[in-house]
Amino acid sequence: MTITTEQQILVEQKVTNEAKSAGVAYLLLFLFGGLGLHRFYMGRTLSTVVLLGVTLAGFLMPPLFLVTLIWLAVDLFLIPGTIMRGKRALRDRFTAEQGIAGA
């Protein structure tokens, strides 16, 4: 099941329109880091809740703030990969839709 060049262009246009922005994710990380809004933006809801829980627990047990800081530092490097996986998933979905529509 192959798709035409026009369909490929349409798929890439849809991916570009619907994909999450790394810039927005980094902005959310720097402005609202411990709240996990950058993870929520990227569709990582469960880890958002866990990060928020660890951050709030840090108010009761201050050493947990260190866990939050380490998590946020790791997220600096994970954001590009997460965005790329999201784009790949969108591309696969839209390509499948074009294949079905073109059949």
TrEMBL record:
What GO cellular component entries does it have?
membrane
Domain TM2, first and last residues per copy: 19-61
Q: Where are the transmembrane segments?
A: 23-42, 48-78
What keywords tag this UniProt record?
Membrane, Transmembrane, Transmembrane helix
Q: Which domain of life is it from?
A: Bacteria
Q: Name one Pfam family in it.
A: TM2
Tell where it localizes.
Membrane
InterPro entries, alphabetically? TM2
Q: How does it sit in the membrane?
A: Multi-pass membrane protein
Q: What is this protein called?
A: TM2 domain-containing protein
Taxonomy-wise, where does this protein's organism fall, top ranks first?
A: Bacteria, Pseudomonadati, Pseudomonadota, Alphaproteobacteria, Rhodobacterales
